[in-house]
C-alpha cells in the first residue's frame, strides 16, 4: 500500500479538481478558484520542508492568481 503524507493528499484532492472546475461555467468556476486557494498551504508546506524554493516562489504567485480569480468570480 502506498503511504502519502497529508500535504500530498491535500494537493491531490484540491489541485486537479480546481483546475477542472475553473474550465467549467458558473457556478463551478467560482468554486474552482476557492478550492485552488484552499490547497495552497499544502503546496507551501511541501516546498518548505523539501527546500524547493523555486516551486515555493511559484506557489506564492499562484496564491495571487487563485485569489484574483476568486475575487473576480465572487464579487458579483
Helix-strand pattern: HHH
How can the largest sheet be summarized?
none
**What is the overall pLDDT average?**
93
Strand-residue proportion: under 5%
So how many helices? 3
Large-scale geometry: flat
> Which structural class fits the helix and strand makeup?
mainly alpha
Task: Determine the N-to-C terminus distance.
Answer: 46 Å
What is the number of beta strands? 0
Radius of gyration (Å): 13 Å
Uncertain segments are none
Helical fraction equals over 70%
As for the number of domains, it is: 1
Structure description:
The chain has about 80 residues and is mainly α. The chain has one domain (about 5-75). The protein contains three helices and no strands. It has helices spanning about 5-20, 30-50, 55-75. The longest helix has 22 residues, at about 30-50. It is flat, with a radius of gyration of 13 Å. The mean pLDDT is about 95.
Amino acid at each position: 500500500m502506498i503511504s502519502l503524507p497529508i500535504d500530498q493528499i491535500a494537493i491531490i484532492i484540491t489541485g486537479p479538481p480546481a483546475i477542472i472546475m475553473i474550465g467549467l461555467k458558473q457556478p463551478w468556476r467560482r468554486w474552482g478558484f476557492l478550492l485552488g486557494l484552499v490547497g495552497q498551504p499544502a503546496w507551501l508546506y511541501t516546498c518548505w520542508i523539501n527546500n524547493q524554493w523555486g516551486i515555493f516562489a511559484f506557489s506564492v504567485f499562484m496564491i495571487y492568481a487563485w485569489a484574483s480569480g476568486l475575487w473576480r468570480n465572487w464579487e458579483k
